[in-house]
Amino acid sequence: MRLFLFRHFAHQGKVGAFYGSTNLEIIPRAVSDLSINKDIDVLSSPLLRCQQSLERLGLVARDSLEQAQEVDFGEWEGLSYEEIEKTYPAKVLEWQNDDDFTFPKGESLKDFHARIIELAEIINKQKKDIFLMTHGGVIRYLICHYLGLDFNKSLAFKVDTGSLSTIDIFDEGLGILSSLNLKEEDSWRASLL
């Protein structure tokens, strides 16, 4: 099975700020329909930026999955790393060194890990290739999951907005990262044909 992971298009939030559960609109821009010519299931995060990104590509999700939402950054939503570091210096150190970290008034990394594993189980039960419209953190964690890497390695993968990445998944539940950060419409189409 092939898993196509699309990170939503750029949103209207502050550049460089953390947005997880905040429901932001995408920046208007013309993109022609993606027109997938193969038997594929389209799944998505329910957040507005993902739904609008699907519309921009001319795709309709079969299912909207709560498990595909970005981590909830809590009080850190809308803040840049510099603002977080200035306001919460002790918490930033804790975040960097604690696998059981919880974002202030947000989600714990432990709960986010569990959601990603649950999402992977949903994906693994599918009979067709999957196109998943989701978020950068979800994509990085899914890459780690399918490559057999610890989740704390997730920041080693840069996932741009408006990019397509693919993982070939085998019966054992492991995979190969076959592309990362394809950003041009022609490369998306070539990957999906």
TrEMBL record:
Protein name: Histidine phosphatase family protein
Entry superkingdom: Bacteria
SUPFAM superfamilies: Phosphoglycerate mutase-like
InterPro entries in the cross-refs: 6Pfruct_kin, His_Pase_superF_clade-1, His_PPase_superfam
Species of the source: Lentisphaera profundi
A Pfam family hit: His_Phos_1
